[in-house]
Design a protein that fits this description.
The structure holds 2 protein chains of 2 kinds.
Chain A lengths: L1 E8 L6 H4 L10 H5 L9 H7 L5 E4 L11 H9 L3 E4 L4 H10 L3 E3 L11 E5 L4 E4 L4 E4 L5 H9 L2 H8 L1
Parallel strand pairs in A: 1-2, 2-3, 3-4
Antiparallel strand pairs in A: 1-5, 5-6, 6-7
Chain B lengths: L2 H10 L8 E5 L2 E5 L3 H12 L10 E4 L9 H17 L2 E3 L6 H7 L8 E4 L13 E4 L2 H10 L1 E5 L2 E8 L8 H12 L7 E6 L1 H4 L3 H9 L8 E3 L4 H6 L19 E6 L6 E3 L7 E3 H4 L6 E4 L1 H4 L2 H11 L9 E4 L4 H9 L2 H8 L2 E2 L20 E4 L14 E4 L2 H10 L9
Parallel strand pairs in B: 2-3, 2-5, 3-4, 5-6, 8-9, 8-11, 9-10, 14-15, 14-17, 15-16, 17-18
Antiparallel strand pairs in B: 1-7, 12-13
The chains are: A alpha/beta, B alpha/beta.
């Protein structure tokens, strides 16, 4: 699976209240959730106005820490984000992303990647190319089991087919 | 093998190693009043009206927005009640309390079990040797259908805590101190095993306090092997072989701390690992104090607060909110005279539940307001935009409520 898109860069420890503020937890409609993606961050305004479908989030360590709310990856995916690249992911966020079919990949060297750069990501091999700076990085791809679930379109589709 | 390796080997039917991806059989699947409605919607959209894998192994608990605070919440709660009836699964309604505590009190979990639920603090069950994991709605919907969930087997770190604690220093101070040392991602993708005389001496509530904040270190789970006393309290006669680490178990790291000199600790805004001695920030004016939560809402926690509040008044202009974790805790607090102390002091005591964990519950702060809370998180905006939240023990919280400023209980 190859993903290509424009970068939105965020820092370390972006928690689930920044990704999706707790006050919107009662929402159940996914397109409504999408309107509040990243609303608790300091780039909320920009993100809402300028986000394009297919964009990619690049973040520092421990992305998605905090609560178990699945609204966090759902809102990002429904808003049009094609992939999240981070130095590390919080455990629950990582599995939620896999389970709903939001592509993610871990990569240590995010320092040189600038906001607005175009990245091309191979989810299977972990090769990440910065098409803007022409640099190539190697990320840590997800496990075989996680990739299978992501590719099936999420856990429930995967389990339904497996029965 | 470490404890988690033993538990996952049993639950997956294969000998596992750290880093393996496995499917584990589940002993209990729990959903709560929020999260739960979306689990049911997801479940029904994929699996229609198919029966859950085992109706005795699925439980619904109402603990956050209870009783329903608005019409949407009320509709969501009814959706769960209807699902419980149709699927013949147990539901603990608004008059019970925090889910994890309810399943412990009801004897629904045993050491060595694998439990999943829609609450990020499911891992407080590690305090009694249960492998509890917080998960999202999709995971729980899949778990209810299949009775299994996928896991990455974590590596394990060992945390050894030794030394007697000073007066007014308790489990919350110990875990805040460990958080300061390990940091908010110090246990990421790892399990913790807690050992040492300080831990071994702890009662049930203290063990729960310790295990609950493994979440704030991003850990999968933190185990404390139950003592004979804990097993007796739980009414269990369990063989501990499956939850005792082998002598040759491999640990990724070993941390050893002495807490003999430990002072009351407090996590300052806006991170649970921004921990200082209470005396370093003493004197900061507070607007509200909260005593409760899955971390510090049990009887011993309320008791610790009551010892300081007895015969005293909450400082004028300060709001003290006290919330027992469960109805059983509330009843014991009533019998033992704690309500008399709290109400006379001017506290608001609400019905059992999670209370001030996140926005959406009564007690949220206005911008610029300061709160000392016995809960487990102080992320920015979690309890109101622009609010400043400090995390501390019930004793520190009670002392602060009396003084109206952050106060070390030893200085009251």
């Amino acid at each position: 699976m190859i993903i290509k898109g424009r970068i939105w860069k965020f820092g370390d420890d972006i928690d689930t209240d920044q990704i999706y503020p707790g006050k919107y937890l009662p929402l159940t409609d996914k397109s409504e959730m999408a309107k509040h993606a990243m609303e608790g961050t300091n780039r909320a305004e920009e993100f809402r106005k300028d986000l394009r479908s297919g964009d990619i989030i690049v973040a520092g360590k421990n992305f998605g820490c905090g609560s178990s709310r699945e609204h966090a990856p759902v809102s990002i995916k429904e808003a049009g984000i094609a992939c999240v690249v981070a130095q590390s992911f919080a455990r629950i966020f990582r599995r939620n992303a896999v389970n709903i079919g939001l592509p993610i990949i871990q990569m240590r060297e995010i320092g040189e990647i600038q906001d607005g750069d175009i990245l091309q990501i191979n989810l299977e091999t972990g090769v990440i190319e910065n098409l803007t700076s022409k640099k190539v990085y190697s990320g840590t791809p997800c496990s075989k089991l996680e990739l299978e679930i992501m590719k099936a379109g999420g856990l429930l589709r995967y389990l339904k087919e497996a029965r | 093998m470490t404890i988690i390796e033993k538990i996952f080997s049993r639950a997956s039917g294969n000998e596992v190693r750290p880093g393996d991806y496995i499917w584990a059989a589940l002993d209990l699947v729990v959903m709560r009043d929020f999260g739960g409605p979306n689990v049911v919607r997801e479940y029904q959209s994929y699996f229609d009206n198919n029966k859950v894998f085992d109706s005795k192994k699925v439980v619904i608990t109402f603990d956050l927005h209870i009783p329903a605070r608005d019409e949407r919440v009320a509709r969501n709660q009814n959706l769960l009640r209807k699902f419980a009836r149709e699927q013949n699964v147990r539901l603990f309604d608004v008059n019970n309390g925090i889910g994890q505590h309810i399943i412990i009190e009801q004897g629904l979990v045993r050491p060595g079990d694998v439990v999943v639920g829609t609450d990020s603090h499911m891992n407080l069950l590690g305090g009694i040797g249960v492998a509890g994991f917080g998960m999202g709605t999709t995971d729980i919907a899949g778990a209810m259908f299949k009775g299994r969930a996928w896991f990455r087997v974590p590596t394990t770190i060992k945390v050894i805590v030794n030394g007697g604690l000073q007066e007014f220093v308790g489990a919350k101070d110990v875990i805040l101190f460990i958080l300061k040392k390990l940091g908010t991602d110090g246990a990421l993708n790892r399990a913790i095993e807690f050992y040492g005389e300080t831990i071994e001496r702890m009662n049930l509530e203290q063990r729960i306090t310790i295990a609950s904040m493994v979440t704030e270190m991003s850990g999968d789970i933190g185990f404390i092997t139950p003592s004979a006393e804990i097993l007796q309290f739980l009414g269990l006669n369990t063989n501990l072989d499956g939850i005792v680490a082998d002598p040759e178990a491999q640990y990724e790291a070993v941390y050893e701390f002495s807490v003999t000199q430990l002072e009351p600790q407090i996590a300052c805004p806006h991170s649970p690992d921004n921990v200082k001695n209470v005396r370093e920030v003493a004197g900061i004016k507070v607007d509200q104090v909260f005593i409760g939560s899955c971390t510090n809402g049990r009887f011993e926690d309320l008791k610790a607060a009551s010892l300081l509040l007895k015969g005293k008044k909450v400082k004028s202009g300060v709001r003290l909110i006290i919330v027992p974790a469960t109805m059983a805790v509330a009843q014991k607090a009533l019998t033992e005279g704690l309500y008399e102390i709290f109400l006379s002091a001017g506290a608001v005591v609400t019905n059992p539940g999670c209370a001030l964990c996140t926005t959406g519950h009564p007690g949220i702060l206005a911008p610029g307001e300061v709160m000392v809370s016995t809960s487990n998180r102080n992320f920015i905006g979690k309890l109101g935009k622009g609010a400043m939240v400090y995390l501390a023990s019930p004793a520190t919280a009670a002392a602060t409520a009396i003084k109206g400023v952050i106060c070390d209980p030893r200085d009251l």
